[in-house]
Amino acid sequence: MSRPITVYAPAALAKVRPEIGPAYVALAGASQVLLWRFYWIDDKYTAESYLFFAFGLCALYAYSRPFRLARFLEYVRLRPRQNVRPHENPV
Quick one: which of 66, 45, 59 has its CA closest to 10? Predict the structure, then answer.
């Protein structure tokens, strides 16, 4: 029986950034606590979706380069302009 690929995803991501490994363990623990904390099922999964959304934002921040306004403005100014012409009908 093969395991889903999502089982190995945290290990692969933690290999790139080892400091995020304990955060994955804390996320697993916090999701289990949330499942036992709320009585109504919609409250459970709403709280869990907020938890995973916040963790997703933190993971994006951890894996991204630091934002610098000067580098962004340089990228915008040096990007070549593309002249888009309307589609010409060959008929």
Answer: 59
Question: At 33, which amino acid appears?
Answer: V
H-helix segments, the chain? 9-16, 21-37, 41-63, 69-78
Q: Is the pTM of this model over 0.70?
A: no
CA dihedral 48, 58, 20, 41 (to 10 degrees): 0
Local structure of 86: helix, strand or coil: coil
* Nearest-angstrom CA–CA distance, 14 and 23: 10
Count of CA atoms in the C-beta half-sphere (13 A) of 75: 6
Per-residue model confidence as pLDDT tens for the chain (91 residues):
555 555 566 777 777 777 888 888 888 888 888 888 888 888 888 989 999 999 888 888 877 777 788 877 887 776 666 665 666 655 5
Token pair 């306004």 is found at 69
The first and second tokens of residue 55, run together, are: 């963790």
